[in-house]
Amino acid sequence: MGARYVYHVVKNAQLTNWHVKTVAVSGLDGALEKEIFEAAAAFEGKPFSFADSEKLQQQFVKQYPMLRHVSVTRGLLSGKLKVSAKRREPVAQFVLPDQTRKYIDQDSRVYADPNGPQNVPQVSLVGDVPDQLKPSFVELVQDVLKLKKSLPFEALEFDLQQNTVTLRLPDRSVVLFGPATELKSKARRAAQIMDLVRQKYQQPATVNFEFFEQGKVFLTLSAH
Hints:
This protein is an alpha/beta fold. The chain folds into 2 domains: 2-87, membrane protein fhac (Ubiquitin-like (UB roll), Roll); 90-221, 3-Layer(aba) Sandwich (Rossmann fold). The chain is 32% helix and 28% strand. It has 5 helices and 12 strands. The strands form 3 sheets. The chain has a 6-stranded mixed beta sheet, covered by helices on one side. Strand 10 (174-179), helix 5 and strand 11 (205-208) form a beta-alpha-beta unit. Helix 4 packs parallel to helix 5. The longest helix is centred in the C-terminal third of the chain and has 18 residues, at 183-200. The model is unreliable at 5-14 (pLDDT under 50).
């Protein structure tokens, strides 16, 4: 009983008087890893409570929107402050009217990343851009990339006010997806139609999916 009591007292003391001895950062590399490490290392040798770890975690989430799965934990016996995070993987990028560049990740999250990659498909968003887009739009971007041979898009426009999507191809062909619904099925059908147009007509075309839910797709050929 006495030994268990002493252990309980010592354990509680470690929990309430926990100090940072070392810092470890995982899941990141380069300059971002260094920044996170230096921010956490500022607490070395200082008392650090559970509330402090939550506060630091929220600070990282707010300061680094390009990160996901951010976690700040304490190694209660080791004294190690552990920070883990992953960098978001963009599927598309766009530029706001003020020339601010933002990215869209696989979870449809819109975020800023000053040092983000440049070789990411560029899309156009019309209207007020929320922090989270509809998953169907991200799925469309991914599907169009898979169908790049048939749909080598020059511009992909998402009108957030009208909730419509338009795809523009280099040969001046246009795909009007209409309402941002069933985009995966529409993309595959558009690829089939454009392959047929190239084989038979070899001229720009407009494919209109406005009445897709009624089983209708309209094709209009344009002059060269």
